[in-house]
Amino acid sequence: MDIILASYTDPLEAQIALGRLQAEGIDARLDDAHSVLANWEWRLAIGGAKLRVPEAQAARAREVLAAIEAGAFALDDIADDDGAPLRAPDRESLSGRVAWLVLMLFNIPLPWRRRRDDSAVREL
């Protein structure tokens, strides 16, 4: 029989916990994860994504979840072969900046697209 070990309102956090439990050899499953992703406004109403494990493996699963919360699986600073710390890639690229600029320019009202003065048309 499976028991609900934890409930997560963040589906990504639930997937990380599920993956860690499965990596430890625990037969875990995640219920309502797709509902939580598809209907984010329902997350609290349905109780979030529920992490279920067999009752026999619950004690070990609780230990693993406690280790996750304590940061036991966090990555330390990673260095390359020369010992220099690796930097995360810059997510801002030139094409991304240009796309943002074009988007902002299209939202600006252009001066030559003003509405015609109706009084000038009536005089003709």
From TrEMBL:
Gene3D superfamilies: UreE, C-terminal domain. Pfam families: DUF2007. Residues 5-69 form the DUF2007 domain. InterPro entries: DUF2007, N-reg_PII-like_a/b. SUPFAM superfamilies: GlnB-like. This is DUF2007 domain-containing protein. It comes from Luteimonas yindakuii. The lineage of its organism: Bacteria, Pseudomonadati, Pseudomonadota, Gammaproteobacteria, Lysobacterales.
